[in-house]
Design goal:
Blueprint: E1 2-10, H1 15-26, E2 32-45, H2 49-56, E3 68-71, E4 80-86, H3 92-101, E5 107-120, H4 125-137, E6 143-147
Antiparallel strand pairs: 1-2, 1-3, 2-5, 4-5, 4-6
């Protein structure tokens, strides 16, 4: 069993991330230098992960080639990453579509969320990222978050 993580970002400027960035700066988070947002998908794949990785980035219901770019894995030490997911992550319809209509029968499970990438110029980056997340980037009533 292999775990594949797919990150999907917009090719054009992300107005949601830009608005959130400016709002956070007005809220007093002046150490926040940059804020980016990506869609996050995690797949548990039974067999042939290399073939799966090459094919999943071409699936148009996840990645629209006209407006998105996709990456399978990344390590970016410059950023503090926060993954926000719905508490009741219901990816069952998307999983069903990928398995039955798109031919990805090797996916045993999947989850999805939003990855917020924060460039923070401070020593206590994780504490600031957590405070930012609690104050603006997630809703405690139906979402959960994880500092990566």
């Amino acid at each position: 069993m292999a775990v594949i993580k797919l990150f999907v970002s917009l090719k054009i400027p992300d107005t949601t991330a830009i608005t959130a960035f400016h709002t956070l700066r007005r809220m007093g988070y002046h150490s926040l230098e940059k804020l980016d947002r990506e869609e996050y998908y995690e797949f548990d794949v039974a067999d042939n992960p290399d073939k799966f990785m090459k094919e999943i980035v071409k699936v148009d219901i996840l990645v629209n080639a006209n407006k998105h770019s996709a990456k399978i894995c990344k390590t970016d030490e410059e950023y503090t990453n926060v993954l926000v997911t719905d508490s009741r992550d219901n990816s069952s319809k998307l999983l069903s579509t990928l398995r039955e209509r798109m031919g990805f029968g090797s996916i045993s499970s999947m989850s999805k969320g939003v990855l917020w990438k924060m460039c923070i110029a401070a020593r206590n980056r994780k504490e600031i990222a957590e405070k930012i997340t609690k104050e603006l980037l997630y809703n405690e009533h139906y979402q959960k978050y994880k500092i990566l």
